[in-house]
Every structure is written in structure tokens, then in C-alpha cells.
Amino acid sequence: MKRGWIFGLLAGVGLSAAAALYLISPSRVSPDAIHASVTQAPDLINRAWMLPVAAAFKSNVTWQSNGSRCGPASVANVFRSIGEEETTEAEVLDGTGKCWTGICVMGLTLDELAEVAKAQTTRDVSVLRDLTSEAFHEHMRRANDPGRRYIINFSRERIFGAGVGHHSPIGGYLETEDMVFVLDVNEDFKPWLIERERLFSAMDTMDGDKKRGLLLIDE
């Protein structure tokens, strides 16, 4: 019995280590696939950085520290843009009990990320899911409001053909082009623009038994 327990523990540790390694370095998307899947044309990107919300980020995104911490990195970047004190992953996670090993095992769900954000701000934090395409469009129109910040949870696979669920702030919406500016916190991707309906399709996917969606941080 004792030997079986030890073998079981070792097997569990091995599986945990393998899971941790996957989360730190999830399936990669090639630079060619990124280039072919989204828009990073300098003229459009420069225009997007001039949008009211994007401008508050001062053309700067602090990259996530590992592949599992896109959620805390997104909140930290948003907090920096609105003048909150907690502007690092560690500060955002402090006291929440989340990701205490340095790894957010299986990543954070949208609801868990909302809990993290609520613990560090007095602003209103809302989870928006089960949105229709029309409701998403309306929120994107409001994404240029300086008093609002959106973080989107979406499936990379739907856009890039590979990858897993991901969180990143939305920097704004180019309405004439009908494109959303995603401030990707992964340094391999960097900020990009995408057609609104394609981004909605990537968000309108399941994460466990719930839909992905938006996190709204509002004054």
C-alpha cells in the first residue's frame, strides 16, 4: 500500500510537471501564421495607437511572464493605463491566492480573472458572456470610451490555426475598417488588428462549460 501511494504521488508530480511545462510553453504559432491571420500593417497600427483608450497605454505593453499568466498580465496593463497602483503581475495577484506557484495551472477562467481584478480595484468589474454578434459590436463601439477598459478571452486556434485560450486587453475599435485593436500581451504576437466578426467568432467559444467573453472594467 505504501509503495503504491509513493508511485502514485510520483506519477502525479510527473503529470503536474508536464502540465506546467505545457502552460509555460504552449503550442506555438509561427510568425508566418501570425502575419497571415491578422493585420499588423504599420499605418493601421499607428492609427490604432492614437485611439483614445490605446493612447492611455502609451504605445507600451508589458509582456506576460509565462504562457499561463496572460490574464494577470492583461489586468496589470489595464490598471497601468487607468492609473491604478497594481501594475505588475505580482501586484495584481497579491493576496488573491491565485497562481502562487508562479504558474496559473490550466490558466485563469474569465470568472477567476474577474475575481483577481475585483480584489485590487474599487472600479466596477463585470463579466460579459453569451453575447450576440450585435451586442459585441455595440461593446466594441464603446471600446474607445476612455472611462472603460475591456479584456477579451478568446481562442487562438480560431484565429491562428493553433494555440489555446488567451486573454488580452482591447485597445480600441477602428469603426470605418470594422477592426478591433487587440493589445496582445504575448511578445511573440505583439498588438494586432482583426475584423470584428472574426474576433467575435474566436470569443464565442467554450472554456470548459461556459462561453468565453469580455471583462469590463468601468469607472
From TrEMBL:
Leading EC class: transferase
Domain of life: Bacteria
Gene Ontology terms: biological process: phytochelatin biosynthetic process; response to metal ion
Molecular function GO terms recorded: glutathione gamma-glutamylcysteinyltransferase activity; metal ion binding
Enzyme Commission (EC) number: 2.3.2.15
Domain Peptidase C83: start-end pairs: 1-219
Keywords carried by this UniProt record: Cadmium, Metal-binding, Transferase
Keyword Transcription regulation: no
Cross-referenced PANTHER family: GLUTATHIONE GAMMA-GLUTAMYLCYSTEINYLTRANSFERASE
Protein name stated in the entry: glutathione gamma-glutamylcysteinyltransferase
Organism name: Rhizobium mongolense USDA 1844
